[in-house]
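Record type: monomer structure entry
Structure origin: computed from sequence
Chain ID: A
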Amino acid sequence: MRIAVGCIGHETNTFSPVRTTVDNFKKGRYLRGEEIISAFRGTRTITGGFLDVAEQFNMQPVPLLWTFATPSGTVAHAAYQTLKAEFLTLLQDVGDLDGVLLDLHGAMVTDELEDVEGDLIQAVRETVGTTRIVTTLDLHANITAKMASYSDVIIGFDTYPHVDCYERGFEAGQLLFGMHAGKIQPTMAYRQLPLLTAPPAQCTMKAPMAEVIEALHAVETERGVVTATLSMGFPFADIADAGVSILVTTNNDMALAEIHADQFASTIWEMREQFTFNLHTVESAIEIANQTEGKPIVLADGADNPGGGGPCDGTTILQKFIETDVQDAVIAVIADPESVAQAAEAGVGSRVQLNVGGKTDTQHGAPVALTGYVKTLSDGRFILKGPMGRGTVGNMGRTAVIQVGGVEIILTERRIQPYDAEVLRSVGIEPRRRKLIALKSAVHFRADYTPIAHQILEVDTPGVHSPNLFNYNYQKLRHPIYPIDPTTTYEKTGSR
């Protein structure tokens, strides 16, 4: 049993001015053939889970192309066309297949195409004919009817932070085996809700999403149901199909799939007002920390989250930390290759004058002029040890820790979401021993930091990943949609 596996992935923030090119994919992660097997075997990833189930059921993985660019602005259409052509050529050259696993994200946008994954899945379908296609998608996928139409099954993450990647890859492999054996004939119902939600409200480690996922799992235990997916969508892609969607797959029973999809969609819609949250100003977060004995207190700088397209060089929190002379604090991370180079040239133990951050655009704060002590220099490589992506290699590029008063600033050459505590530990900082830790992450950090954080505060900073959805000038988003249009109503939108 031969199963092709591959990915062309990107989470596109259309509000970011940073265009995404082929070079961004190749500098992100770009693997071909057996490189894919070597990179993912033994990891807690989608492909890692699939590789394990393939071994269990004696399936032969046929690796094609696996590439993922760090989330950023709109993808150059020519870049996508180049990668798509390469992917399809590899697919055509591998010969007969019994299945295809597409390990995708679900929120990629080019300057000519809103539904990139739908286009790619359609092209794969036209190449392999009736061969079974199982597509895995991120919880932030903006799932379209086209994606559902050309996939036999779509499986989305159940968690945010995404700690179930391995399990979803394993599940995908099991379904491919079941379909090949004739035990499963998938029938999939699709629903799209007129509902937009921001990342803090999508976190499955707390209400209301914890209860929502529990209800989703209850659907999956129903007789005849094969799998069910709730995608909360990616609200920072200004496209018609952004937002919440639901898929229910049954074993050769479309009527049953329709019933469960309608019931679950109605449940989510009735809960729409619960997807709200409170943000703290940076000043109030500092004040809370000053009045609290426990540590660490984590400040989530979600607006500059590089995992959702932020430039990772925002300076709002850094500026406030320095102005208020906070002590025992860490900023993780600010991507600033220029400052890293200056620190490296000066060397450990030196004092340097730097203009830190604020170099990508004007939306995330101005550069901060400072004089600091070069505390640490590193190659920036580390192994992730937290629940998300455990076993994979992180690469920040050359990295410097600069101390300014009571603040340690982790400067990196590369944009990286610091959701794993090894980001700090790899440069000699033990997070449990710091009072304030500002992380450029919206939710993913909770998987590794919740067990050690005394308190987590989501802060209101400017940026292209701000959880305040009323900050954006949507041009292509469908209307009406809640909460942008408060009087929105929901009616069933159909299925495949």
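Annotation 1: The chain has a mean pLDDT of 97.
Annotation 2: The chain has two domains: 2-274, 282-466.
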